[in-house]
Amino acid sequence: MDIVSTALPALALGAVLGFFGGVFGIGGGIIAIPVLVLGYGMDQATAQGTALAMMVPNLVMAWWRYVRRNPVGLGWAAAGVAVVATVTTWSAARIAHGLDPTLLRTLFALFLMAVGLGQLLERFGWTARTPARAAFMPLVGLAGGCSMGLLGVGGGLVATPLLTGFFGLGQRAAQSVALALVTPSAAAALASYAGERSVDWPIGLALALGGIATVSAGVAVAHACSERALRRSFGAMLVLTGLLLSVR
């Protein structure tokens, strides 16, 4: 393939994923990976590594923008989330090799659809009457890290509804903390994939450049929306993600 038929579509795809990643505080790998497998003919490992090459700079940019616009002031609690998530991601990835990936993906898809529908209907009961103490927040990193390690996706998708429901954070604040969870985990995963030579760097960099150009616009849209509209949009995205995982 020449530069026109590979890099330019990757730039466009990266721009779309960067925008929605900025809106919802996610990396976009759930969409990028199947596109790279089906559209570019990559094997699964290379697709995941290439998607990470896009995700890491996009996540850093989105997290920086969220923190500037909506500082949550959680200090060591947010740092604990990131540390626990990174360690758990590495450990869960080692365990995942002995498990049935189809079963794991199906269970995760059903979980996402249930949480998404709950946010759409606002009747699922995710909002605790008394918010949990911030000291327990690293447990969210445990859940998000397990998701990323076992499935390669979903750290932010799992963390955000837990943070809004059990810790009383607003949607934007929760997405900011979720980005703090996902970013170092994604960087560690990228280093691992790069060490195994499972990254298509030209495509990954094209995706990253496209995403960097639109992440800030997505973050601006997130902060222009009401909390209720953003939460319901996030819920709809969870449902669609669950359906996509089921199809895969």
What is the straight-line distance between the termini? 26 Å
The fraction of residues assigned to DSSP E strands is under 5%
Give the C-alpha Rg: 17 Å
Portion of residues in helices? over 70%
Unreliable stretches: none
Number of strands: 0
Write down the overall mean pLDDT.
80
Number of helices: 10
Which term fits the overall shape?
A: globular
Supply the number of structural domains. 1
User: SSE string, helix = H, strand = E?
Assistant: HHHHHHHHHH
Major sheet summary line = none
Helix and strand content put the structural class at: mainly alpha
Structure overview:
- This protein has 248 residues and is mainly α.
- The protein has one domain (3-247).
- It contains 10 helices and no strands.
- It has helices at residues 3-24, 29-40, 44-69, 76-96, 101-121, 138-151, 155-166, 171-195, 201-224, 227-247.
- Helix 2 runs antiparallel to helix 3 (44-69) and helix 3 (44-69) runs antiparallel to helix 8 (171-195).
- The chain is globular, with a radius of gyration of 17 Å.
- The two termini are 26 Å apart.
- The model has no long low-confidence stretch (mean pLDDT 80).
- InterPro entries: TM_pro_TauE-like, TSUP/Inactive_protease-like.
- Keywords: Cell membrane, Membrane, Transmembrane, Transmembrane helix.
Q: Could you give a short description of this structure?
A:
The chain is an all-alpha fold. It contains ten helices and no strands.
